[in-house]
Design a protein that fits this description.
- The chain is α/β, with parallel strands linked by helices.
- The chain folds into 2 domains: 5-158, Rossmann fold (3-Layer(aba) Sandwich); 171-292, 3-Layer(aba) Sandwich (Rossmann fold).
- The strands form 3 sheets. It has a 10-stranded mixed β-sheet, with helices on both faces.
- Strand 6 (127-132), helix 4 (137-149) and strand 7 form a beta-alpha-beta unit.
- The protein has helices at residues 19-32, 69-95, 111-122, 137-149, 180-188, 190-193, 215-225, 243-253, 276-283, and strands spanning 5-11, 36-38, 41-43, 48-56, 101-109, 127-132, 154-158, 171-175, 198-205, 230-236, 258-262, 265-268, 271-274, 288-292.
- The longest helix is centred in the N-terminal third of the chain and has 27 residues, at 69-95.
Length: 293
């Protein structure tokens, strides 16, 4: 299945999503919409970006009680509404400079309704592209819910990236540990893998037992038989590196445009307990990262 429709959540409060993040997604969509050779045949699959601007409904008593609660509430409500309108206008302005299909709408919701709405929207799109802020638990919560509840892949990336994000996915790295989420991630990423000029499947050793990691070679062979230029290799994780830094170094060394990985986690009383790699990547994505569960 091709990635034809991408959901782009745009948060308006307390600080709206930045213009650079919006531009990065639209540039990627433009690249993905260009004709490419797949199994010797040129095909064009246009990607649509559907922006959903969340206008946060401010509740009285949410912050504090006092003599000036009315003034504070009105000021915050105006700020939220203004941010939402400006964010929608910004998206439309940037989108006008890119030859891609777009849609944009504003939804006004209370904070406790926002996550549920995003999950429902993600389920009817092929993928969600989510800019995240480094070490921001609010964005991690959103990413977790989308990854584990939506049943669709999530493409995360740093909202404020220290280096320019790739405009295309020519070189792709796939983190493989033999798990069900890893296998799901490979399947979800096939539209990108088929377009890539190089795919590197890697397993980080000395991190945890991976009895089926050697299946990575079989995955690489299978992809190669489908016309994907794929190789498999094992990377030794030293004691000086966390699993997250190991992934980051691998991506940097091979100049990978995209990291594909399965998200590991299980719920306990509806609270996600994340695996080390998943937690590290969600809190500080090194670039474009596609996660599946």
């Amino acid at each position: 299945m091709a990635i034809r429709d991408v959901l782009l959540p745009l948060l308006n409060y307390p600080e709206p999503t930045g213009e650079a993040a919006i531009g990065a997604v639209l540039e990627l969509a433009e690249s993905l919409s260009k004709p490419c050779a797949i199994n010797g045949t040129y095909r064009q699959i246009r990607t649509r970006i559907s922006a959903l601007v969340l206008e946060t409904e401010i509740e009285p008593g949410l912050y504090f009680e006092g003599a000036h609660i009315g003034d504070f509430f009105e000021a915050e409500a105006r700020k939220s509404a203004t941010n939402a309108k400006e964010l929608a206008t910004t998206f439309q302005r940037i989108a006008a400079t890119h030859p891609v299909l777009t849609a944009c709408r504003i939804e006004r919701r209370y904070p406790y309704e926002c996550l549920r709405l995003l999950v429902e929207e993600a389920r009817v799109h092929h993928m969600t592209a989510l800019p995240v802020r480094r070490d921001d638990s609010h964005y991690q919560d959103i990413a977790e819910r989308l990854i584990f509840d939506a049943g669709r892949p999530v493409l995360i990336f740093p909202e404020h990236s220290p280096r320019p994000l790739s405009k295309s996915f020519s070189r792709i790295a796939v983190a493989w540990d033999g798990s069900r989420p890893a296998a799901r991630a490979v399947g979800d990423a096939m539209p990108f893998l088929r377009r890539a000029s190089q795919v590197r499947i890697f397993s980080a050793t000395d991190d945890k037992p991976m009895t089926s990691a050697t299946r990575g070679r079989e995955i690489a062979q299978q992809l190669s038989s489908e016309g994907v230029d794929a190789i498999y290799e094992e990377v030794k994780k030293t004691s000086q590196h966390t699993i997250g830094s190991c992934f980051e170094n691998y991506i940097a060394n091979h100049r990978s445009d995209l990291l594909v990985m399965g998200a590991y986690g299980h719920s306990k009383l509806r609270e996600f307990i994340l695996g080390g790699a998943t937690r590290s990547i969600l809190m500080n994505p090194p670039g474009w990262v596609m996660l599946s569960h």
